[in-house]
Amino acid sequence: MKFTKMQGCGNDYVYVDCTKEVIEHIPETAVKVSDRHFGIGSDGLILIKSSETADFFMDMYNNDGSRGKMCGNGIRCVAKYVYDYGLTNKEHLRIETLSGIKELDLILQDGKVSQVTVNMGAPILQPSLIPVVSDKDVLIKEPITIDGQRYEITCVSMGNPHAVVFVEDTSSLPIEVIGPKFENHPIFPDRVNTEFIQIIDRTHIRMRVWERGSGETFACGTGACASVVACVLNGLTEPEVTVTLLGGDLSIRYDQKENTIYMTGPAVKVYEGEIEL
Ligand SMILES: N[C@@H](CCC[C@H](N)C(=O)O)C(=O)O
């Protein structure tokens, strides 16, 4: 199987052009290629397919083989892939995902894609649609007990489920211990991605993330968008924020009039190769 390894803020995936390659047993392949000792090493697998309703279809899998509905860092890399490999010459792209069609604009440097802006759509706050079990209309600063300790979560879907937790300091967080407990808490029937947010000032936040199906990653694009929505709902930041992640910065703008979130960030090719499956 021919592949390209790419990363956006250190959130790395193996990308395969499925307009040319056929992959069987996709969840098993995702687990195999993602292994950092016996495989290529990545947070998961992203398949680029043709689409009947958009320019391309992004099909993403976490490193445990589970399928994700949307991936913010991944979709920027898909845009770079299809442009740089000559699958399209469009600088404005429409990419279909399991959570709908996203519109993207490429930012070019020396003829290659360096940054991409994505219209990430509207945040979803209704608990049943996130999904999170609750009889409330929205979950803002909702108490939850993890390992006997009380936290407060603000729940947002960006096409995939997120719980946002505000903390004093992200660097001292026992994320390996508490991350899986949030992920598998019974109030989240489909598990959850959890963002831990430290407010630096009203236009700058620091974030660490525990992703459902992949563990701690260096960045999560949908998570950064969900976190800025949570910051605004809690009155903690302006709607335009720089999110500093372990692997770099994302610029997030929550346009409240349009009820739409725009994400701008890097997309980088690491290398390409071939693997025997
Ligand atoms: N890293 C991604 C999100 C990937 C999917 C997520 N783990 C899920 O299962 O919902 C991003 O950049 O958004």
UniProtKB/TrEMBL annotation:
Residue(s) at site: Could be important to modulate the pK values of the two catalytic cysteine residues: H162, E211
A single Gene Ontology CC term: cytosol
PROSITE patterns (UniProt xref): DAP_EPIMERASE
Pfam families, A to Z: DAP_epimerase
Enzyme Commission code: 5.1.1.7
GO biological processes: lysine biosynthetic process via diaminopimelate
Signal peptide feature range: none
Compartment(s) of residence: Cytoplasm
The organism's place on the tree of life at top rank: Bacteria
Stretches of the chain forming a coiled coil according to its record: none
Catalyzed chemical reaction(s): (2S,6S)-2,6-diaminopimelate = meso-2,6-diaminopimelate
NCBIfam families, A to Z: DapF (TIGR00652)
Family: Belongs to the diaminopimelate epimerase family.
Function: Catalyzes the stereoinversion of LL-2,6-diaminopimelate (L,L-DAP) to meso-diaminopimelate (meso-DAP), a precursor of L-lysine and an essential component of the bacterial peptidoglycan.
The name this protein goes by in its record: Diaminopimelate epimerase
Species lineage: Bacteria, Bacillati, Bacillota, Clostridia, Lachnospirales
Gene responsible for this protein: dapF
